[in-house]
Amino acid sequence: KALQLTLAVIKPDAVAHPLILEALHQKIVENFIIIRKKDLTWRRGDSERFYAEHAGRFFYQRLVEFMSSGPMRAYIIAREDAITHWRGMMGPTKVFRARYTSPDSLRGQYGLTDTRNTTHGSDSIESARREIAFFFPEFLADTWMKMEEPGFRL
Ligand code: DAT
Ligand code: MG
């Protein structure tokens, strides 16, 4: 089975806490091949563009503000079924659901609120493509996969 790429992001709440940042980083190292990694801080406009699909929802302003409130760490990661695997490790979006139904998930263990929920992961092949390009515009996914790893796909 082919390896797959996805985007994983450690959000500002988790980056701000050194022990949580380290724990999440170790989980990623143990479960994936890391292809790229960068620390970055969004401006409000980046936040608004990235989460445009949620514009108008009651939590949108809070989400936009939070995601541009401090440094994040983004990774391009690879393995078989990377998208599903990372989403599974993260657990449910909402923190109480995560805590009670998936206490061992990253959000179940480290999530603070429905907004401050530690991590982001792409939820489909299309969003992985779009979101990798959003965070890593210099990363040419098609060229990289063709030239370096014929077994990879996105
Ligand atoms: P996910 O991050 O699991 O893909 P999503 O795409 O539905 O979840 O929402 C994006 C982010 O928006 C989510 O990580 C945190 C915030 N969010 C979603 N639903 C929320 C809610 N009901 N209350 C507060 N924040 C919410
Ligand atoms: Mg989502």
UniProtKB/TrEMBL annotation:
Mitochondrion found in the keyword field: no
GO terms for MF: ATP binding; metal ion binding; nucleoside diphosphate kinase activity
Active site: 120 (pros-phosphohistidine intermediate)
Binding site for ATP: 11, 59, 87, 93, 107, 117
Catalysed conversion reaction: a 2'-deoxyribonucleoside 5'-diphosphate + ATP = a 2'-deoxyribonucleoside 5'-triphosphate + ADP
Gene Ontology BP terms: CTP biosynthetic process; GTP biosynthetic process; negative regulation of cell growth; negative regulation of mitotic nuclear division; UTP biosynthetic process
Domain annotation Nucleoside diphosphate kinase-like: ranges: 3-142
Stated name of the protein: Nucleoside diphosphate kinase
This protein's record includes keyword Ribosomal protein: no
Keywords: ATP-binding, Kinase, Magnesium, Metal-binding, Nucleotide metabolism, Nucleotide-binding, Transferase
GO cellular component: mitochondrion
Family according to the record: Belongs to the NDK family.
Cofactor (UniProt): Mg(2+)
First and last residues shown, out of full length: 11 to 164 of 183
EC number(s) from the headed UniProt entry: 2.7.4.6
